[in-house]
Design goal:
There is one protein chain. By secondary structure, this protein is α/β, with parallel strands linked by helices. Helix content is 39%, strand content 24%. The strands form 4 sheets. The protein has a 7-stranded mixed sheet, with helices on both faces. A 5-stranded mixed sheet has the order 9-8-10-11-12, sandwiched between helices.
Length: 456
């Protein structure tokens, strides 16, 4: 698809994401969605009001009634769509840099559009076969603040009070209008940083990967926090540090919740993305459940296909009992509940319940038009170099080499940025480092070769 990536539409303002595109998406959604009402919301980026206004115009032109939820996090838009509308649209570029913006589209039940729906919507955008409402069919725009209702829904679902001290980093993003208030309503003592909305993201880069939020570890130790929570620009992603200021690996967080849900259900299927690690399989299988890996950006597809009791990819967790969307607010509430019910600090819970594996991730910059060729060439080289060590190769999203010693190597294209992701996990640090050096150098060399050949 030309417009949709792994998580909606994203790109640089004026190059890919424009008011004209936003208006066309509004027209396409208004034509595509059954029912009368579409909910819209936005993050805090400097261009979001402009794009949302164009989107609303497109929706109104098709005769839909539009509910404007204003500046709220993406999980709240999904929840509000399920309660009040027949479809939803979020203006956000999530964790991308401030130069970018994007559009995510939702069904009336709060699920992000499935792949086949995105394809149909994209075809409608390019065909421009939009419905045009007559003058007396055009409906209105209503503003609706759902923040308090959403917070109450999360509180009712989590059903827990705490006295933990929580350090919260909102990345100057949309989560800042919900998270501190939710945590305080739970009884937590909240210390907030980067919790004012600013589309320039002055506090840190919006993606909550370790290198962008490493300073929170020392800050947590200094302030005596029991837990650190960091979000991205639209607050679907969540990253965590424990009470010692140690970063909690994304797979470890997923494994904690996967184990919890499988134990609760006495089994069941957990779906996780192709770039997740072996510790998840270990705890799920030990608890009597099953792990299925799916393409990145499709947890909702996986829930539908496999009837999953839990779904996740790094930083993004779906709690189907609450709703079929990625929800970091439910995650933070349930994590606090888990810590309190175990009666132990998070570091001890992880040490006792989650096995240790060694993982490294790094991106190789690669022009979008070279991604396919680079991956095919890297696949051939890695297959030759790894040889008899390979147990199987998964081709769900890029190439994942499952090795006989339990290690794995993944090279896959980013669906939102001009990058190729390289991920390696192994039972030992030495093995991980050897495999990562091999995989990263192969991808980087293939990118350079194709650039020099003039194919860029």
């Amino acid at each position: 698809m030309k417009l949709f990536g792994t998580a909606g539409i994203r790109g640089t303002l004026w190059e890919k994401v424009t008011p004209e595109l936003a208006m066309d998406i509004g027209k396409a959604m208004g034509t595509y969605i059954d029912g009368e009402t579409v909910a819209v919301a936005r993050d805090g980026r400097t261009s979001s009001v402009m794009l949302q206004s164009a989107l609303i115009s497109g929706l109104l032109s098709t005769g839909k009634e539009v509910l404007d939820f204003g500046l709220i996090p993406t999980p709240a838009l999904a929840w509000g769509t399920r309660k009040y509308a027949d479809g939803g649209v979020m203006i956000t570029a999530s964790h991308n840099p401030p130069t970018d913006n994007g559009i995510k589209v939702f069904n009336g039940d709060g699920t992000e559009f499935y792949v086949e729906q995105e394809r149909e919507l994209e075809e409608l955008v390019f065909s421009k076969n939009f419905r045009k409402a007559q003058w007396d069919e055009i409906k209105g725009l209503k503003s609706l603040d759902i923040r308090d209702e959403y917070i109450k829904a999360v509180l009712d679902f989590v059903n827990h009070e705490t006295n933990l001290t929580v350090l919260y980093d909102g990345a100057n993003g949309a989560g800042s209008v919900v998270a501190p208030y939710l945590l305080r309503e739970m009884g937590a003592k909240v210390i907030s940083v980067n919790a004012h909305i600013d589309g320039h993201f002055p506090g840190r880069k919006p993606e909550p990967r370790y290198e962008n939020i490493a300073y929170l570890g020392e800050l947590a130790r200094t302030l005596g926090a029991d837990l650190v929570i960091a979000q991205d620009g639209d607050a679907d992603r969540i990253a965590v540090f424990d009470e010692k200021g140690q970063y909690v690996n994304e797979d470890t967080l997923i494994a904690l919740f996967a184990k919890l849900y499988v134990e609760e259900h006495g089994g069941g299927t957990v779906v996780v993305s192709i770039d997740t690690g072996s510790r998840i399989d270990h705890v799920v299988e030990e608890a009597g459940g099953k792990v299925v890996r799916i393409p990145l950006g499709q947890p909702h597809d996986g829930i539908k296909k496999y009837g999953a009791i839990f779904a996740a990819e790094p930083w993004k967790l779906v709690h189907p009992k609450f709703g079929p969307w990625i929800d970091s607010f439910v995650t933070m509430g349930l994590l606090i509940k888990l810590i309190d019910e175990r009666g132990k600090p998070l570091s001890q819970i992880i040490k006792e319940e989650i096995p240790t594996y060694y993982l490294t991730k790094k991106n190789v910059r690669c022009p979008d038009d070279l991604k396919k060729a680079v991956l095919e060439r890297a696949h051939r080289v890695l297959e030759e170099k790894l040889g008899d060590e390979i147990k199987e190769v998964l081709t769900i999203s890029g190439y994942r080499f499952q090795l006989k010693d339990g290690s794995w190597v993944l090279v896959r294209p980013s669906g939102t940025e001009p990058k190729i992701r390289v991920v390696v996990e192994a039972p030992s640090e030495k093995r991980r480092d050897e495999l990562f050096e091999l995989a990263y150098s192969v991808v980087a060399k293939e990118v350079e070769k194709l650039k020099q050949s003039g194919q860029a």
